[in-house]
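I had to read the description of the data format several times before I understood it. Each protein is reduced to its one-letter sequence and a matching series of backbone shape codes. The format is easy to grasp once an entry is in front of the reader. For illustration, here is how one protein appears when written out as sequence plus structure tokens:
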Amino acid sequence: MLRSLLARTVVGLVLSFQGQARAGQETPAPESSEPPLPEFVLPTVEVIGKEVPEAPVDSARRRDPTGAITVINARERAGEARDTAELLGGSASLVVQDSGGYGQSKSLVVRGASSNGVLVFLDGIPLNGAGGVADLSLIPVALLERMEILRGAAGARYGAGGLGGAVNLVTRAPSSRLLSSGEVTYGSFDTVMAHVAASGALLEGQALVLLHGGRSQGDFSYRVDELPALDDNPLTQEVRTRNDARGGGALLKYRHGLDGGGRVDVLAELSLEDRALAGTVQNPTVSRRQDQTRLSLGARWARPFGDTGEGSARGFFRRDWLDVAGGSTGVDSGAQRYTVGGVEVEGRAVLGRNALAVTLAGSSESVTQAVGGQAASWWRASVMAMDELSLFSERLKLVPSVRVERVGHYSLLSPKLGASVDLGHGFGVRANAGQSHRAPSFLELYIRQGLLLPNPELKPERALSVDAAALWRDDIWNVTAGGFAAVYENLIAYELYPPNLAKPYNFAAARVWGAEVELEARPRAWLTVTSSYAWTRTQNRYGDPRYFGKELPYRPRHKWVGRLRVGPDWLNGRTEVLVQSSQLINRVGEARLSLPSRTWVSVGASSTFLHRPDLTVSFDVKNLLDARTADYTGMPLPGRAAYVTLSVALDPSPSEDSHVASPP
């Protein structure tokens, strides 16, 4: 009934919006005294050393001026990516943990930190659920404008949970002009994806409506050695099952300008998904399925105060409905409901050489689980202060920040110190050192899940991180090279709890160090080259001699991604190569128990062959060499796949501000 009501609401809003948009075309609206809001396209990497316009107060660069930040333009790669994880996987020190094809769970490992130690936000709304892990499969690329990635200690600016970093997924912005678009993709494994969007003036503001959906059978074939102990054993052909998924949703956004340069943004996002759960190679399932619904609501007010101050306030609410059914009743978690809501107020003022920012935040979280009538809830509250001190004609910047946070009954302190130096001629350096925490999740603390017991005595995990990098940027090149190191303490891991149960304890510790290189070159308007490389070493510091000094599982030592795009809009080609070294699948460190190295080559071409409306057709082949590998549970991942995409964009009222502005 809830889905039916939400669907009728969305349809009603779309019809109402279309009617007002037509009315706006028939009767010219009075001219606004406010300038039109530009649409920004950001470069892949943000660095210092070049004069750039002032960024919004909630952007990644303003939140952490010296941080290791990468910004990915999702709209620039529209039509060629199947999901959000595919775009994020091309960034340095980001490794995607994939459990299948389209619609199956996908999470991030950043700089060696576990997936539950990486914060993920949708327009500032936290997406990390009751288990502490954000599932990227629930965020289609169609929703996004850009992705802002902060690598390293994120606790001071983003709060508890950011041991390895934070990712903010920024959704598409509404337009003051009447715009409409649609896209449909069909490809391998009976995969179909589509979305439609409309944007325009509404109630003296701008509105955006986007509807999306997709499904995939995921029934690809693969070869397996059923008797690996025997030499020259013939491979048998199998078909991957329990890999189907389907889902859909809607995004509604509204933006209204206020007197004095202020602005109000309102967001509503709905996601529905149903997928099969395959289990593991050792314990496959035959009927287990997951049904998940997410409703996110957010509102943000922001305005400048004079020439040197600005303030903002944000409120958000998110509700997840998660139902798991089928399989063994001994491990079924049943229906789970997770609710989070909160407010955040931030002020910033420039006082001479100092730019001071203060943030006050509070939120409430709760989770209920049908099995045993289990429930848990707590409050979060925090205060953050940051100073951006500029010296020597703003060539040197010192950015100390600190967050004091109360999460349930845990008190957390997350300081950070950043510095950047502009050396002139596009060169610069930056460095950061900080501490972050992750409070145990509700599931680890209070909720029993089948054979997994909770432990209310757990302590927060802690990370001490440092990084430094050299930067160079001009009109063509954008290069960053640096290194990082981190120590993770009190890590939570499950151990056997007699007779046949498992329970989490704070006994694990690890250290991580490595190097990163990111490069972007745009020598011509029709030519773009990007590349990233990460070398990462991990070491288990737990005292058990079976694990001490061994590398952590699922952390490949090497990862390189290169991407080339050539050609104008009317006909362009692209290729992307991802090379990732082998990775262990257990803490013992046995080479025979590892996922092999992989080289994925993808190619594609697009052509905008008609204008007014713009019609674009794209063809992509993923994993061209048909490299075969498995996910972290041992289940096979898809091989070669091909997709065709048709996109339509209509702008019946072009204006002078229809061009894309320079990046902030």
